[in-house]
Amino acid sequence: MVQFLNPEGEFGVPKGLEAYGKYLDALTEADYLKFYRDMARMRRFDLEANALQRQGQLGLWIPAIGQEAAQIGSGYGVRGNDHIFPSYREHGVAITHGIELMSILKMLRGVNHGGWNPEETRFHLYAIVLGTQTLHATGYAMGVAFDGKVGTGNKDEDLAVITYVGDGATAEGEVSESFLFAANNKSPLVYFCQNNQWAISSPTASQTTVPLFKRGAGFGVPGVRIDGNDVLASYAVTAKHMDDAREGSGPFFIEALTYRIGAHTSSDDPTKYRDQAEVDHWVARDPLKRFEKFLRRQGVGEDFFTEVEAAGEALATEIRDATFALTEPPIENMFNHVYSEPHPRIDEQFEWLKRYEASFGEGN
Ligand SMILES: Cc1ncc(C[n+]2csc(CCOP(=O)(O)OP(=O)(O)O)c2C)c(N)n1
Known about the structure:
The protein is α/β, with parallel strands linked by helices. Helices cover 46% and strands 9% of the residues.
């Protein structure tokens, strides 16, 4: 397992991992502080969104507490023109790629259709149908190769694709199909699997009899396991395999061992299927605390942590105010993006809905 920071925040590059370790040599103190700021931002956003859901402001919340190192590290390992195909829990990766956080909350309140423009950010839409995003990513990566944007040596033009997938989702047929197509076409694709130990109430052991990082090997997709609670491992391993993919070495699978500390979603009660002792074990391995210990060892002072805390409170206020200010969208939005061209059946349904709404009388 690739690990550079132990749970006490002590840093070391173990023998044999130098090819990954060299990616850390290029990091400056500003990069370290950015990693911490964004991990803390992700956590504060999560806590506030959860509270907003509990107060009836959101239809659903999908917590990612505990997965900050996996997401912020890998998000920063993705560069240049690369494209990202997330599942539905990648709020931290979204932060690293400029997604407006309110657009995630609007989707979970049901006032937009989950739309942001991937062309602006290269961060594609959340995919709730498990595993489908791996096929979307494979198709995109195959297209990149057909367009001749792999392995040319032109750093401004070449690109790779990353897709995020859960441990449970690896059991879906789509993921195996994507392995086959990506390997056979030597596609520039990295799979980043956050093994957070649970697929709702199903433990990882019920999805696989071999470690997940070996799942792709029979298809020709090699893999590695990393400590997903170590932001430096997550960054370095993602950056290296994205570089390799961009240079033409084909697909690769990263299994980041982490833990979902919160519920699967706000509709789930994890106390029904897992023990508190297990949760406590992982809380003691909190990725944010581990990185804080590392930074303090590096000499980062209290002022920085105070500033980050204040920024978190400001973010929380900002998203609360913005959520309370949201208004209902016009009903035609529901019909606007079904087809690219107008369609008589859709027009008919819209007319029916308008008559139905009018039947309640003015002001209803
Ligand atoms: C094809 C499909 N089957 C079932 C579901 C219901 N479902 C939503 S999330 C989930 C568990 C997924 O677990 P995992 O892939 O480990 O990701 P995590 O939620 O832990 O991030 C299930 C079964 C779905 N969304 N899509």
